[in-house]
Fold these 2 entries.
Entry 1:
Amino acid sequence: MASPLEQFTIKPILDLKIGETDISFTNSSLWMTITAVVLIVFVVVGTQRRAMVPGRWQSAVEYFHQVVADMVRDNVGAQGRRYFPFIFSLFMFILFGNLLGLLPKSFAFTSHLAVTFAIAAFIFVGVTIIGIVTHGLKFFTLFFPHGAPLVTAPLLIPIEIISYFSRPVSLSVRLFANMTVGHVLLKVIAGGVVALGSFFVLPGLLPLALLVAITLLEVMIAVIQAYVFAILTCVYLNDALHLH
């Protein structure tokens, strides 16, 4: 039986190098591309007709649009409208990546810390730049809570700085850890179903039922983790815009 961790192995599909830098097209790159293509087709086809009475496909796209629009409005406010396209793309890309990663023979790229940290670091740098451009040097007052006694500055400022710079770490690890653990659990239980089912039919039914239940749970976790990633991005953006 293959190791449960084997499913996370990144394998080159097309070997490419620029000097000493390896830029090979891997299975991770392939499934990122597939996710992007599926997402584009989903949105473009769903919004192509724009019927007054929407069909199922258009309704699905409009539902996700409304979910993200409400998220941005509630957590960022009116100033967040200009950032809606990015938040919507971020949410949908992670959501589709999580869900497609549950398919047999697929590759869950969101279960790799390198991928989730790259996304989180991009958000962190972008939000920081937005805050500095919006407020100038006043942005750095974010590291000292409003109304706190000045004497507490030597203690509070280092804590706030550490907390701020830990954002991309916590944001990336949360998604990576949840997806990795879920896929390992599915692999282990699936192996148990095959092993027991090969010898005893009835004993194999219990692991099978458990596998179905955990798969449904993983679908729910995939949705929740995409939502959490997007909503935390909105919270960080709100801090940068309003210095809360």
Note: The chain has one domain: 6-242.
Entry 2:
Amino acid sequence: MLKVYPLTAEVSFAEIKQMCETGIFSSSLIRLAPEFANHGPVVAEKLINKFGETEGAIFFLEASHIVLMLDSRSGYTPADIKREVGRLLSDIQYHLLVRHTSTGMLEKLHHALDTPMDERGKLFKERQERSSKVFMVVDDDMFIRKVISGHLENFGTVHEFSDGDKVVESYEEINPDVVFLDIHIHGIDGLEVLKRIQGMDFDCKVVILSSDASESKVRLAQTSGASTFLRKPASKERIADCVKLAYFDV
């Protein structure tokens, strides 16, 4: 059953973390447009009516930011959630971020609650307001970087990196729409880079790159909060699919 925390309730993150330890959950962060900011309770009611029988939780970061967490074993994939939320909220303007959640991701979400309201989503807002898309490609294999960058240049500006430390140093300044990130890179490894940029930007969208597409690698990417997994070498079509993350979640 869906655990529901009303707008005025204190969220029990310890309880939610314990719930997540039983499996992989998909978290959906719904940001309502300013003109619909007071629709939070209405949105929550719609979500409860639809997903109330599913294992998970629903709570507010603030009135216009609602989080829906669903157990992946319920059969709802991120694509399913996006479709269902779109149907439920067809008359409301919003932005939806869907990704798998680990207990570590919940720690970052908890930290976000302690961030001053005017700083929450600062990088997200900057991305929404600019006219062109920006990408980061992080891989210590120059050939792989050039191939991915070559495909991305048709969609926006591309910044290449081979060193994890440089990515962390440059992230906020570049503020990419999507990061293509290899697991094994120079300096700090890809998963540590992911962890650190999530600490700066809860809305970051990261595609994990690896030549190993084993189930364990895919699961590791999921539980680390990556948006999706891309096996190297990647086709032009698969890279183009990942570009869609710059516009919406797939």
Note: The chain has two domains: 2-113, 128-246.
